[in-house]
Design goal:
By secondary structure, the protein is of the alpha/beta class. The protein is built from six helices and six strands; from the N terminus they run ααββαβαβαββα. The chain has a six-stranded mixed beta sheet with strand order 1-4-3-2-5-6.
Length: about 210
């Protein structure tokens, strides 16, 4: 099965980066396309040219539901996070790939950078299918299950009209799990299904060292 949002379905495609530059502010002097290549995170032509907004200014997230690491009402703003590296992870509760690779990546990244003044992290349930399983309540359940001390949100779309969540439309995501990395200038420098977690952490750590 291939990614086909018109049929409200997806197939996760795994990609692993090879090399990461180790100089701070490296991405500030490069185009996002060049940065993705340098990071070894550029995906296949079909996925990267038809999905995602790599190289563009990251739009604000339009969600009504956010909770903090304690499950209390919260907020999260991409715009207000300008000056930081922003890591967004889109997921769905019933998504097998989210549990096999998406949440482990989010957990490892959160364990490393949660609370760091130069990094902002959020998980977003972007519901485009399985509305009865991918519920608002599931966001908190997943937060507890994976011990995630981060802000998490719920973007449900519209089941009756088969309308995609605003995050999926604005960021042109290809399904779930979907990872978005935004540099301190607010530019999306990577978007895709998966990256090598250790190398991603190594790269972001080098940028904020």
């Amino acid at each position: 099965m291939t990614t086909n949002l018109s049929k409200i379905s997806y197939q996760s495609t795994l990609r692993s980066p090879d090399n990461y530059p180790g100089r701070r502010r490296f991405l500030h002097t490069m185009s996002a396309a060049s940065a993705a290549l340098a990071l070894g995170m550029a995906g296949t032509a079909s996925s990267q040219t038809t999905r995602g907004i790599e190289g563009r200014l990251a739009p604000e997230l339009m969600l009504d539901y956010w909770i903090d690491g304690d499950g209390e009402p919260a907020s999260f703003s991409v715009t207000e996070s300008r000056g930081k590296w922003v890591f967004l992870k889109c997921f769905q509760n019933w998504c097998p790939g989210c549990h096999s690779s998406g949440f482990p990546t989010l957990k490892a990244f959160s364990d490393e950078f949660s609370g760091h003044p130069d990094v902002a992290i959020a998980g977003i349930q972007t519901v485009f299918e399985g509305y009865r399983s991918n519920t608002k309540e599931a966001v908190r359940e997943l937060q507890l299950r994976y011990d995630l001390p981060i802000t998490m949100g719920h973007d449900p779309g519209n089941e009756d009209e088969h309308d995609m969540p605003t995050t999926m439309k604005n960021y042109r995501t290809g399904g779930t799990p979907w990872l978005i990395l935004i540099n301190p200038d607010g530019i999306v420098v990577y978007n895709g299904f998966h990256v090598d977690t250790d190398k991603l952490i190594e790269f972001v750590g080098a940028q904020i060292a």
